[in-house]
């Protein structure tokens, strides 16, 4: 189970009936707060965004998911798109999610956690190759990746890499699944000494392409942004 995984949909109201279109993934960090990348929502009308938690199969009525509207977006004030810097947004929901077995918040890593060569994973409804034609996963999938040392990342990444503090993970030919369109989804790692409990180490910012799994995926490093996130949580809660 991945009870902290959420989907951010864009609602289209131009059809005879409202329809939801997948925009990106995200993570539930408190009953009323979700983390994702700012690029996912920055050009969207806030009133058309829907956040869904507790769903295992995309747009299936079989699972007891919960939907919430967005009340406010707290985008990092230092965001830049060229080059990509501080691509982070805290989504404040109109009402809290009701916590249940399939809806739970994720915690942050213990301070001082060293992640080099740590075996972690990300989850979401990514793209997988199918006879040469990419397709979306129907069910929530887990992609295992290993965090790469920063100096190795510098050699493996393309010249147009982001300049924000980042982690990179994956990039082992023949061992990684395609990360596809998992943008905004969490990078989570097992808590030392408690392998069935997880903390969120990063957010998918720049997935590797389905045609090249030799390049690592790039993740926002949440250790760097933890103070900003916690300060925003306190401000929004008052």
From TrEMBL:
Residues 1-234 form the Peptidase S1 domain. Its main location: secreted. One of its GO terms (molecular function) is serine-type endopeptidase activity. GO terms for biological process: innate immune response; proteolysis. It is found in: Secreted. Gene3D superfamilies: Trypsin-like serine proteases (2.40.10.10). InterPro entries: Peptidase_S1_PA, Peptidase_S1_PA_chymotrypsin, Peptidase_S1A, Ser/Thr_Proteases_Immune/Dev, Trypsin_dom. Belongs to the peptidase S1 family. CLIP subfamily. This is Peptidase S1 domain-containing protein. It comes from Anopheles melas.
